[in-house]
Model the fold of this input.
Amino acid sequence: MVFFGPTFKPVDDDFGPSFETNKILSEMTPTERAKAKGGVAQKIKMETAPEYNKGECEEVLRSKGGNALIILGRDRPGNLISGYGGVKNQRAAHAIRLTAGMGGREVGKIPGNIDVSPPEGRMSPNNQLDAATIYLSQKTDIDDDQAGFNCAYGTAGWIYGRSAVAMKADSVRILSNDGGIKLITSANRTNSQGGNVDSYADINFIAGNDSSDIQPLVKGKNMAIAVDNIFQYLDKIMTTINGIVEQQNKFNTVLTTHTHPVPPIVVPPLASTPGIGAGVASWGGPVTTTVTGMTTIASQPLFVGQTGPTPGMTEVNPAVSAIGSETTAIFGTQTKQRIVVDKNNMWSSNFNFTHNNNSKFYLLSKNVHTT
Done:
């Protein structure tokens, strides 16, 4: 993935502003200059490699004519006044820096990487620009955006004034043959500065140096137990639904064939009385009502309950019977079949998720573990 443009540029022969390099090259013959630029078969190759701005306390081992350095000294993320070995000037802040490509590919062209004070331009470490670095310090601000490696906050936070080890390059690989790889936090009860370690420090995996959406990892065995429990609950729910469907099927059968006796009821006719009137009542006396121009009850006796061939018995309603039969077919057959299929699929999925480590859907890592 490319974030900020091309990942590779062709190497050129720009020798940068190094005073010593330009002086040496100017004194060479064309043949000697070509040889110096060659470098074939690990021969010395003169290229952009300004002089290192060495501190008084530092011991420096540097490749011949190159830009690979091992520096033993005090905490120094940048120039001579930086870090706990600079203006902070604190004790117990010793450091080791291993750098290949100090200042990056075009070290001579990068403003700020060369100290201004020396007229010939000497080079200082730069945690942001150096090509590949392993840095060990007894006391440093490892996460700081200026004095450190500009690390995202995460859940571990920004650490200041502690011992630290940082590895930075375009690609970092940690390889193990058969002893495994362990990432362990809070290994001791005290830190390098004598402070107590009262809780477990976090382990953060942060892509893109952006921790705005950082989330906890899942604990595999606990997740497997949780998934198993969920599937068991779903199984119980499906079993319950199956029982409800069976009972509904029985109920539908009874409902669609149900008859009940209704004794004949005779409602006497009520004649209409023309005109407009009002009810008149007295305590315990009758109430009379007059109705205008309409008949409330038919003039002939109305028989209720005698709708079927047998007086007092209702017939089976064809519409109700049809709906009941349809419901019975759906719930009694299709739903029961779906439940059986769904349960089989559910348990097959559960097996592949949490038990079958050869399945591509297996949820647990086989080799990576977290606390």
Q: What stands out?
A: The radius of gyration is 45 Å. Residues 118 and 284 are 123 Å apart (CA to CA).
